[in-house]
Amino acid sequence: MARVYNFSAGPAVLPEEVLKEAADEMLDYKGSGQSVMEMSHRSKVYDAIIKEAEKDLRDLLNIPDNYKVLFLQGGASQFFAEVPMNLMKNKKAGYIITGQWAKKAFAEAKIYGEAVELASSADKTFSYIPDCSDLPITDDMDYVYICENNTIYGTKYKTLPNTKGKLLVSDVSSCFLSEPMDVTKYGVVYGGVQKNIGPAGVVIAIIREDLITDDVLTGTPTMLKWKTQSDNDSLYNTPPCYNIYICGKVFKWIKKMGGLSAMKEHNEKKAKILYDFLDESKMFKGTVRKEDRSLMNVPFVTDSEELNAKFIKEAAEAGFVNLKGHRTVGGMRASIYNAMPIEGVEKLVEFMREFEKKNA
Ligand code: PLP
């Protein structure tokens, strides 16, 4: 059966090569006579898998030794709570509100302390990244929080906010490993893997070591304390072994593709094809301020709901699936993560061009 071009925002398309390799190893992983799904997380063979995954991730992102890499569970949504639980010593933090995911993290932080809105782009349906050069950050704030790539609205920070010396915490779920990043600019970087890296069920957190302490908010469950996870090298309890194994394969695939600089080039090329078309089309329009456009998530609209629905239906019939925009935005959204081939975007644009001609 032919594979479709999958533009889902997540879970999302994974490299075919990785899926095939995993299928080949399904019944017998490297002569162990078992699937990775079946083996003990305390076994030597699994230990090698998780250690190698961490090593490859460290290579890709050039992660310094004073940062811990944790493979966690609970999705990015659970991490929204883990951030204040582990970091809110003064019970105060600043949040920049650039969409639903930042809003959810903000709401979660309010359960644990005083979360302050530092800036927001809600006034224009989150279609831009607010000016973050002079935010009302106060000395008593424990950290500044951002959602770096806004999956639903298709915006991305091109420069990080001026945090006035405060710790930066960033949700990079939908731009993880799509381009190089300087980990040392952050206290904590984290993301769910189900977009660029692997199957849902793993959150990767990269945390500066001095932030991992026993000094957490009273009532923090053992599992959600970073110190617990760090002391046990992400093996405090049974981790999502198979999913971490797939993440490891994707890290190797990215390395083979030339690493993160090559990935960035590949993603820029892809995004340009789509954005250039949106800029010239009379029917389809991008919804995001040009300078804040994401390389990963591209929302667009026509001026009629009927036409949007017709487009989504006919596109799916032609093998371009999951193009419906998020329920809070409407219209369309093409998520073009690392594993989406250039040809997928070229063919989508060809299809859009034809659709425009036929329906003008
Ligand atoms: N943060 C961002 C930027 C996301 O795109 C998503 C999900 O799409 C989440 C957080 C929530 O992730 P999860 O479903 O793993 O909780």
From TrEMBL:
Q: Which residues carry this modification: N6-(pyridoxal phosphate)lysine?
A: K195
Cofactor(s) required, per the database record: pyridoxal 5'-phosphate
GO MF annotation terms: O-phospho-L-serine:2-oxoglutarate aminotransferase activity; pyridoxal phosphate binding
* Pfam families on file: Aminotran_5
EC number per UniProt: 2.6.1.52
According to the record, the signal peptide region is none
Report domain Aminotransferase class V positions.
4-348
Q: Which residues bind L-glutamate?
A: R42
Q: What does this protein do?
A: Catalyzes the reversible conversion of 3-phosphohydroxypyruvate to phosphoserine and of 3-hydroxy-2-oxo-4-phosphonooxybutanoate to phosphohydroxythreonine.
Q: How does the annotation summarize its subunit structure?
A: Homodimer.
Q: Provide the protein name.
A: Phosphoserine aminotransferase
Q: Which organism is it from?
A: Lachnospira multipara
Q: What is the lineage of its organism?
A: Bacteria, Bacillati, Bacillota, Clostridia, Lachnospirales
The primary gene name is serC
